[in-house]
Amino acid sequence: LYIIRLMSVWRPEVLRGFDRNFWILSFGWFIAALGFAISIPFLSIYFSTQLGLSTSEIGLFFVGIAVVRAISQAVGGELSDRIGRFGLVIHSQTVRSLSFVALGLAVGFNWGFWWVAILFGVNAILGSLFMPAVMALVSDLLPPEKRLNGYSIARSASNLGWAVGPAIGGFMATSSYASLFYISAILSFGSMIVFRLFFKPPPIVANPDRFRYSDLLAVKDDKLLAVHAGLTLILYLVVAQLIAPFSLYTVGMRGIPEHQLGMLFTLNGLFVVLLQFPVTRLLSHLSFTTQLAAGSFLYFIGYGLVGFMGSFWQFAFAILVVTLGEVTMSPPGLTLTSRLA
Length: 341
Known about the structure:
Elements: H1 2-7, H2 12-15, H3 20-39, H4 43-49, H5 55-82, H6 85-108, H7 113-141, H8 144-172, H9 177-198, H10 223-239, H11 244-253, H12 258-282, H13 288-306, H14 312-340
Helix pairs in contact: 3-7, 3-8, 3-9, 4-11, 5-6, 5-7, 6-7, 6-9, 8-12, 8-14, 10-14, 12-14, 13-14
C-alpha cells in the first residue's frame, strides 16, 4: 500500500505544471550527467590498477580537486550572473567535451599521472561552471512554489544519467579506460547541442554587484545562512564518499568486479529516478530542516552499513539506504539555499 501511494504521486496533472522549456533543461542535464557518469566513477580505479597509486595518494588527489571545484564554483556563480546562465552552460559543455577527448588521449597513450591529473582538474573546473548555471536556470524558470518539485524532477533526470552511465562504463572499463572518456566527450557535446538548439533561456535581471572572495565572509552576518552553510559542508563530507572512496573500497578491498560497481551506481541512479519526486511530494508537509535532518540520519545508517558489507547484494542494500538519504535531503537543501539567498 505504501509503494502504491508513493508511486501515485507521479500524477499527470502534477507533471503538466511544468512547461516545455523546463523539460528540455532536464533532458539536457540528463545527457550531461550521462556523459560524466560513464567515465568519472572509474577514474580512481584507473589510478589504482593502472598507475599503481596508493589509496592515500588517490585521496590527496581528490582533496585537491575538491578545493579547485570549490573555488571555481564561486567563479561559476559570478559568471552566470554576468554573462548569463545560458552562455555559461553552452561554453562550459563545449570546452568540457574537448577536455574529455584530451583525457582519453592521456589515458590511451599512457601520458602518466600528471597529465591525467591536470586534464581532470580542467574538466572539474568546467563542471563547476556548468552546475551553478544549470541549477540557477531551474530557479529562473520556476516560481518559488514550484521550485521544490522542479528541483526534484531535474535531479531525477540527472540521476537517470547516473543510472545508465556507470552500467555502460562498468562493462567498457574492463577492456579500455580511454574509450570511456571519448564517449563522455560525445555526450557532453550532445548536451550542448540540446541546450543550444531547443532551450529558450528566460530573461533575468542583471546583478550590478561584483563578487569578491572576501564576500564569502559575509555569511557570518547572516546567522541562518551561516548555520545552513556549515551543516551542508559537514553533510557533503559524507555525501562525497560515494565516488572515489566507495569505488576503491568495493573493488580494491572487497573484490567486487568493475561491472558490478557500475551496477551499484546504476541502482543509485534508478532509485533516485523512481523515488525522488514521490518522496519529495510525500515529505512536503515537513519543514526543510526536518527533511535535511532525516536525510542526514539515513546517510549515517547507509554509510555505516557499508563497512559491514562484502557481497554485491549487501552493498546494493546499503546503496538503497544511502539513496533514501539523498532523495530526502537534496531538494529541500537546494530550495532552502535558494530562499535564504
